[in-house]
Design brief:
There is one protein chain. This protein has eight helices and ten strands. It has 220 residues and is of the alpha/beta class. It has two domains: 116 residues, Response regulator (Rossmann fold, 3-Layer(aba) Sandwich); 88 residues, Winged helix-like DNA-binding domain superfamily/Winged helix DNA-binding domain (Arc Repressor Mutant, subunit A, Orthogonal Bundle). The strands form three sheets. A five-stranded parallel sheet has the order 2-1-3-4-5, sandwiched between helices. The longest helix is centred in the last third of the chain and has 17 residues. It is globular and about 50 Å long.
Length: 220
């Protein structure tokens, strides 16, 4: 049974989410003290975190950034904010998905299932430019040490690697990441690609991903 941590200060919404998760067969755990929630989040042993943005004290985006300093636990932002900027910012901080309130319960459960499925992938990809790729850990290891990627960054990199030398369309990447391209914001993919390209360059893999306008991306 997957363990899902709810970081939501609105009690009625938290209770609604708890019931939804339990009825779907998940174990739910809730944060109720938001004075300093980070230690409890990191020690929760959760398989996935549902994180609100509008929290007392440190907001969800700031909290996400702190979580990503030491944990790659999948995070789905669940928020009443509808600003495109908030979504892009959340994805740039390492969110695995983003859904707005009022949410469709079925869609939320599908998003949770998709993210958990990706996180359970234990396959090890081939090497790239002498770098060892471990998709289970979300890491690249080479002469420059170890590079940790987010879940989405690793999935994008693995997909490009599997089709190295061939163009992978944006639609293909979005469908692979979220399992349903209808609910994807195009900017979110752009943010993930840009962040991955920068990380690879800093790790010694300059010009690894080439953009083909109106076609997609290719790993060189």
């Amino acid at each position: 049974m997957s363990r899902i941590l709810l970081v939501e200060d609105d009690i009625p919404i938290r209770q609604e989410l708890s019931e939804l998760l339990r009825n779907a067969g998940y174990e739910d755990v809730c944060i109720t003290d938001f004075t300093d929630p980070l230690p409890e989040i990191l020690s929760s042993s959760a398989d996935l975190i549902l994180l609100d943005i509008n929290l007392p004290g440190m907001n969800g985006e700031q909290l996400l950034r702190e979580i990503r300093r030491s944990s790659q636990t999948p995070v789905i932002m669940v928020t009443s904010r509808t600003s495109e900027l908030d979504e892009v910012l959340s994805m740039s901080y390492g969110a695995d998905d983003y859904i707005t309130k009022p949410y469709n319960p079925t869609i939320l459960l599908l998003r949770i299932s998709a993210v958990l499925k990706r996180s359970r992938d234990t396959a090890v990809s081939p090497t790239y430019r002498g770098i060892t790729i471990d998709t289970a850990k979300g890491s690249l290891t080479g002469e420059n040490g170890e590079l940790i990627l987010t879940k989405n960054e690793m999935l994008i990199f693995r997909t490009l690697l599997e089709k190295k030398g061939s163009i992978v369309s944006r639609n293909e990447l979005m469908t692979m990441l979220w399992d349903n391209a209808e609910y994807i914001n195009d900017n979110a993919l752009t943010v993930n690609i840009s962040r991955l390209r920068t990380k690879l360059a800093d790790f010694g893999c300059e010009n690894a991903i080439e953009t083909r306008k109106k076609q997609g991306y290719i790993l060189l």
